[in-house]
Amino acid sequence: MRLVQVEGQEPAWASELEKINMKAQGVNFFDITETQALGSSAHLRTLSQPSYNKPNASELVKPVLKKLSTDGPKENLEHFTSFRTRYYRSETGRESQQWLLNKVSEITKEFAPKSLQEHISIKEFPHSWGQNSIITRINGTSDDDRVIIISAHQDSTNMWPFLPAPGADDDGSGSVTILESYRALISSNFRPVRPVEFHWYAAEEGGLLGSQAVAQAYEARSANVYAMSQYDMTAWVKAGTREEVGVITDYTDDRQVVTLTLFLTAFNKELVDLYLDIPWVETKCGYACSDHASWRKAGYPSVFTIESQFGNSNKNIHSTNDRIDISDEFSFSHMLEFSKLAVAFAIELGGWSKDD
Questions:
Q1: Is 82 exposed, middle or buried (0-12, 13-18, 19+ CB in 10 A)?
Q2: Which residues form the Peptidase M28 domain (predicted)?
Q3: Is 232 marked active-site?
């Protein structure tokens, strides 16, 4: 039995089958069985939310953007979608997580200078269901402990979990998008002033399970999370629509500008304007639709960007048709724009110590 919370309702116990039926019926929920303490100190952080200066590090960001490519994401996503399903309770879900963990390690060894490798840690965050989350950290060079988090969820699901779920867009696309950003950063010998972390969460499709567990652990140790950015579905450009970045404005840090500094969603828009070749558009999920909501629940500033306006996003998700080759609407060049955004987010907020 699992403790499930639907927004606006008291938590209630449900079986795993009842959870599956809820998801099939479009009922959105948090599974809070193991994270009932999440958000217990959120009110303390909401009293002193950070703001951010306008982006001003283009001379550092732009050379890294030139190192981004669609080659790695294509190769990685082809393999990542070859698992029958990445469902978090399945054996192949565990195998796909281990493959991703090994791929992060391989990329680190191949592309990070040895002097940088000693400042990088790659760890599994264990979960009871077997598929673990992955946390890769580039340590900061200063005593400033404000951590920047760039994340995606690694699991996939069919509407009925026993069926195949290649999960190319949801969220294979986001997973390899941020992996490419990480590769470009470390190949540039990126030494942030503040720690920068890349997270690949398990079990998002089970009710934001992985990200809730990680956020609860960070909250319990009073971690100083400066900014969190989620990448969930970055590949789809619906035929006949404008290519754009969907900036989610619900369940995120969407406060309005009140001074010369920016709040996080406004800051993210500025990054799109400055570094991407496509525009942004405001859009809403209408519910806590991805892992950014777990961090918001803990009182940390979080943002979420998606492939388009929510209504124009990929309709093949949670099915056997969520594949790379299903349509020309699946675009690796579109994914590359989101890799640019993640690179800019890391450098502009993490800083770069060129003296180290």
A1: exposed
A2: 134-336
A3: yes
DSSP letters along 291-307, please?
THHHHHHTT--EEEEES
pLDDT confidence of residue 254: 61
Tell me if 203 sits within 8 A of 126, measured CB to CB: no
Residue 79 falls in the annotated catalytic set: no
What's the mean pLDDT in 345-356? Answer: 90
Residue type, 327: S
260: pLDDT strictly greater than 60: no
Annotated catalytic residue, options 119, 153, 199, 334? 153
Q: Per the residue annotation, which of 171, 204, 322, 329 is the catalytic one?
A: 204
- Out of 31, 205, 244, 291, the active site residue is 205
Distances (CA, A) of 287 to 179, 283, 284: 27, 12, 8
The yes-or-no answer on residue 205 being catalytic is: yes
Mean pLDDT rounded to a whole number for the chain: 94
CA 229, 232, 235, 239: dihedral to nearest 10 degrees?
A: -110
The whole-angstrom separation of Cα 135 and Cα 198 is: 6
- What domains can be seen in the chain, in order of their start residue? 1-33 (no CATH), 41-350 (3.40.630.10)
**Residue of 119, 199, 292, 318 with catalytic role:** 318
CA triplet 1, 290, 53: central angle to 5 degrees? 140
> Quick one: pLDDT at residue 26?
82
169, 170, 171, 291: which is the annotated catalytic residue? 170
Residue 111 CA to residue 62 CA, distance in Å, equals: 18
Q: Phi, psi (5° rounding) for residue 275? A: -115, -15
pLDDT tens for 305-331 read 999 999 999 999 999 999 999 999 999
Task: Quick: pLDDT tens for 154-176.
Answer: 999 999 999 999 999 999 999 99
User: Between 254 and 38, where is the model more confident?
Assistant: 38
Is 169 a known active-site residue?
Answer: no
143 noted as active-site residue = no
Which residue has better confidence, 46 or 129? 129
Q: CB atoms < 10 A from the CB of 245, how many? A: 25
Predicted local distance difference test score (pLDDT) of residue 7: 82
Q: How confident is the model at residue 332 (pLDDT cuts 50, 70, 90)?
A: very high
Q: Is 170 a catalytic residue?
A: yes
